[in-house]
């Protein structure tokens, strides 16, 4: 039993690393964006891929039809992504990713495109990857697997703690910066009303000042915060949930 548990823990990190490769390297190359660490953690792992892959591997059998694994696996993965998005927004008061601009999305947390990708990944994991991985991993002894699983988990927990601590009060600091941006915009409007300069000239001046302020603000952040803001640009586009609710009242 301990051997199977250790084997599944190891596969969790393999899937998490594969997810990091997909998010940080393959997707940017396909969309012609800059390669970057797109994960929440500092290390090369995206845990949601590990949880999703292990979950569908445990829930579905390789003997099931491709269509069944595709639909059910995609649904389970989308549920995991939706819950993760909701939980992180509750914790940090901000939306970490937003699919509102994509077709057939659900509250901007999951979308049809993700459903299809997760479905394909589920079929590949359940039908091909997981049976092969378990067969290869189970060839190693119990002690070896326990040591590897323990080492990987220790590194994972340390990374998680470091990341969470470094992001304490991140939402408040982001709010302060966004308020500065709004104040600069209002100043621009006032200058337009009182100045003989053209709107385009004032806009150029505002952009120069705003971009300079932004880069200075980014420079003052910790390395972890800078990486997070680059990996999750949606953080800069959403006000705190409480402020949104107050504005609707």
UniProtKB/TrEMBL annotation:
Q: Has the keyword Nucleotide-binding been applied to this entry?
A: no
Which spans are transmembrane here? 6-27, 39-60, 66-89, 110-130, 142-170
Q: Which domain of life is it from?
A: Bacteria
What's a Pfam family this protein contains?
ABC_trans_CmpB
Q: Does the keyword Nucleotide-binding apply?
A: no
UniProt keyword annotations, A-Z: Membrane, Transmembrane, Transmembrane helix
Name of the molecule in the record: ABC transporter permease
Q: Which organism is it from?
A: Massilimicrobiota timonensis
């Amino acid at each position: 039993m301990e051997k199977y548990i250790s084997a599944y823990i190891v596969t969790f990190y393999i899937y998490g690393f594969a997810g990091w490769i997909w998010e940080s390297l393959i997707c940017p190359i396909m969309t012609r964006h800059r390669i970057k660490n797109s994960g929440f953690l500092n290390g090369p792992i995206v845990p949601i891929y590990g949880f999703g892959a292990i979950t569908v591997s445990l829930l579905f059998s390789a003997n099931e039809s491709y269509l069944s694994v595709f639909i059910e696996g995609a649904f389970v993965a989308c549920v995991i992504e939706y819950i993760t998005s909701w939980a992180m927004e509750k914790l940090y008061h901000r939306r970490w990713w937003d699919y509102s601009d994509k077709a057939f999305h659900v509250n901007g947390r999951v979308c049809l495109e993700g459903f299809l990708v997760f479905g394909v990944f589920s079929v590949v994991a359940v039908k091909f990857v997981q049976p092969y991985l378990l067969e290869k991993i189970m060839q190693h002894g119990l002690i070896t697997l326990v040591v590897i699983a323990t080492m990987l988990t220790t590194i994972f927990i340390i990374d998680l703690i470091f990341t969470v601590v470094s992001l304490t009060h991140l939402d408040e600091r982001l709010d302060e910066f966004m308020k500065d941006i709004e104040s600069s915009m209002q100043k621009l409007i006032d200058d337009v009303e009182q100045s003989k300069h053209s709107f385009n000239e004032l806009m150029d001046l505002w952009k120069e000042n705003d971009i300079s302020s932004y880069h200075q603000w980014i420079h003052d952040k910790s390395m972890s915060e800078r990486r997070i803001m680059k990996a999750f640009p949606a953080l800069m586009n959403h006000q705190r949930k409480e402020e949104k609710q107050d504005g609707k009242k």
